Amino acid sequence: MGLLDPSTPLGHLPLAIPSMTLGRAWVHSLPTKLRAAAAAGIKGIEVFWEDVVFLARERAGLDPAAGKGLLAGVDEVNDQYWVAAAEEIRALCDELGLYVLNLQPLINFDGLLDHAARAAGIEKAKLFFKLVKILGSDMIQVPTNMLSEGTTGDEDTLVRDLTELGQLAAAQDPPVRIAYETMSWGAHRDTWQDVYRVVERVNLPNVGHVLDSFQILSRVWADPSTPSLIEFDDKAKADAALGESLRELASTPGLREKTFYIQLCDGARLKSPIVPGHELYTEGQKPRMSWSRSSRLFPCEYDRGGFLPVTDVAKVLFHEIGWRGWVSFEVFNNELADPREDLPRTNANRAVESWKRLRAELGDAWTHECR
After folding, report:
1. Measuring CA to CA, which residue among 198, 210, 221 is closest to residue 330?
2. Which residues are within 8 A (CB) of 94 and not within 5 positions of it... i.e. 6 or more apart?
């Protein structure tokens, strides 16, 4: 789906949700999660690599929960099982009327220094190309590298890597788009500006970026390692930094056209900062990553502890930039491993309800149904 006219009511925009947001692969089956999304009126799915790996290992007769998950490479199973998994997902999505927005994430791809690691990344990308075609999608999401060792943030190197990936993707039949996304805990690059500069320099029509409210806010406004959980431990300074970032976002030429989709979510206010001794603290892992993986919420879930100024970001995205395309609700937290049977259905409905609340805060008429 291309971009709609900027005057389109927000309630007419297509909603998507990552399969992982509906439950972890080893706890909740993908068919159950997809049915929950469709029943809630969600139109698109971001297929998470973890779900593909789990299903492929299961079809290969291997213990599905013993695999490498997001880090799984081409050699995890034989090619026939990758194909079988993708075909099964595609058939179920077609049955339910769900569109596969993308396959994600092609993790830790950019900035690799080791030649063998870089070659393995290219081989994994080629597998992604094959599977995304079977899934009926045309997009792969690539986050900024999270590995500090064996990598570089040198912009020329990142441009080289994304150019090579973009050219390989463009040569596919049909062509594949690459959606590059900043991680606020990225090893070297952690702002939307970092990613957008690379996208601009690559200058390929099939290479764009993802704008994620959590990645913007958790880098510029929030810091889970401070007592207040706010950047600089000073709300006034954080507000000023966010305002400057959003003004730049709204005034950047061509940004709307190079945005392939957006993601929205909030983060829960913790009782104490993530420092040594905190239950979420992991040695060698940035606190922002720990917080992101354990404590995200859907927008406007203030009753659950949501406190990020998501509406401020949304106002710029929808009102100033005029975004009128796919809106995805990417939420990660510890509850996703809860075996509660109703979790996929509950999370799908929470996503839809949060969209209604956010639209109300943005002044969009409630009469425009998200379905």
Report:
1. 210
2. 136
Q: Is 327 helix (H, G, I), strand (E, B) or coil?
A: strand
Are 166 and 176 a contacting pair, CB within 8 Å?
A: no
Q: Is the peptide bond before 273 cis (omega within 30 degrees of 0)?
A: no
Can you read off the two tokens belonging to residue 349?
């409905």
The CA distances from residue 342 to 25, 33, 333, in Å, are 15, 10, 16
Q: Reduce the secondary structure of 188-214 to three states and give it as a string.
A: CCCCHHHHHHHHHHHCCCCEEEEEEHH
Cα separation of 301 and 96, whole Å? Answer: 28
Q: What percent helix, strand, coil does the chain show, rounded to 5?
A: 50, 15, 35
- Selection from 106, 255, 253 nearest residue 180 by Cα: 106
Cα distance from N-terminal residue to C-terminal residue, the chain:
16
Tell me whether strands 327-328 and 15-18 are parallel, antiparallel or unpaired: parallel
Q: What is the spatial distance between Cα 306 and Cα 326, in angstroms, rounded to a whole number?
A: 23
Q: Which amino acid is at 132?
A: V
Q: Which residues touch 350 (CB under 8 Å, ≥6 apart)?
A: 298, 301
pLDDT in tens, 310-339: 999 999 999 999 999 999 999 999 999 999
Closest CA to 333 of 23, 31, 29, 48: 23
Residue 97, token pair as written in the block: 């009327």
Question: How much is the pTM?
Answer: 0.96
